[in-house]
Amino acid sequence: MVADPEVLRQRASLLGLNVELNIIDLCTGHPPPVGCINVIPVSTRKTVTPGELNPANAAYVLDTLNLAVDHCNKGYADAMVTGPVHKGVINDADIPFSGHTEYLAQLTGTPCPVMMLASEHMRVALVTTHVPLSHVPAMITAQRLSDVLHVLHQDLNTRFAITEPRILVAGLNPHAGEGGHLGNEDDCIIRPVIEQYRDKGWRIEGPIPADTLFQAKLLAESDAVLTMYHDQGLPVLKYQSFGRAVNITLGLPIIRTSVDHGTALTLAGSGKADHGSLIYAVETALRMAA
Considering the domain 112-251, what is its CATH architecture? Predict the structure, then answer.
């Protein structure tokens, strides 16, 4: 774990937990011991109060990410698993930050990171991530869609050992544009890219109207769904598997997984938070690393 040991001790005391912390340095090459919480120390700037945001600690959050990525890049760690971050408080500290996906891409020099949430029953990837809905249509370009499809197809093959991935692509507009009557992006941008990859032998279908795409029969015959924006596909997956899903960043040179939920500040320090998604994120990272 990359964190401030003192914060962990304070939180354990608050919750009445008897935990043993072991401070480690992965750079030494010595395997960390089992039976305790191994911590790579990073200090907070100010005292941490459960459930209270403090912009003074925004840099601490990024310090932990920077160190985890550095250890993965250098081969000290096989994967990284992140908890949720509050984007607003980082921006309140005058640090531009739109999310883990974009920040990790910047750190690793990744030109096209792809956000994908996965559960036992489905995988949903996104063409656009944390952007205002009004910006989405302009971002759906042939180049962007082609780049995302390439990353998705490649990582399904290399990270998940799926030899010939089957991908379903959602349309942008209602009814996938209704033949141009409800928008022309589906026919003019999305469909030609899909046909281009189908001509290459890919198993890919679309654009499929989003309101009929998430049928059990279609999902059973696919390996991943690609949706155009954040709230087009993720509500479906989270309705079915919230707390039992994992957020995976594709396209990175390192393995990164995360939880499927936000910070839940009202639950901080209460002992009532559900850790199911974190466990699933760790298990997924282990499987991908193996």
Answer: 3-Layer(aba) Sandwich (3.40)
Unique residue bearing structure tokens 């925004």: 58
What pLDDT is recorded for position 33?
A: 83
For residue 147, what is the enclosing H or E element? Answer: helix 142-158
pTM above 0.85, yes or no: yes
How do residues 64-73 score in pLDDT, each as one tens digit? 999 999 999 9
Q: Residue 138 contacts by C-beta under 8 Å, 6 or more apart in sequence? A: none
Helix axes 191-199, 142-158, angle to 10 degrees: 40
Q: Residue 21 — very low, low, confident or very high, per pLDDT cuts 50/70/90?
A: very high
Residue 166 to residue 175: CA distance in whole angstroms:
22
Q: What are phi and psi of 122, to 5 degrees?
A: -160, 160
Q: Give the position of tokens 């910070």.
A: 263
Would you kindly state where each structural domain of the chain is located, as residue ranges? 1-110, 112-251
Q: Which residue has the tokens 């911590």?
A: 39
Q: Tell me whether residue 21 is exposed, middle or buried, using C-beta atoms within 10 angstroms of its C-beta: 0 to 12, 13 to 18, 19 or more.
A: middle
Q: What are phi and psi of 64, to 5 degrees?
A: -65, -40
- Find the mean pLDDT for residues 154-172: 96
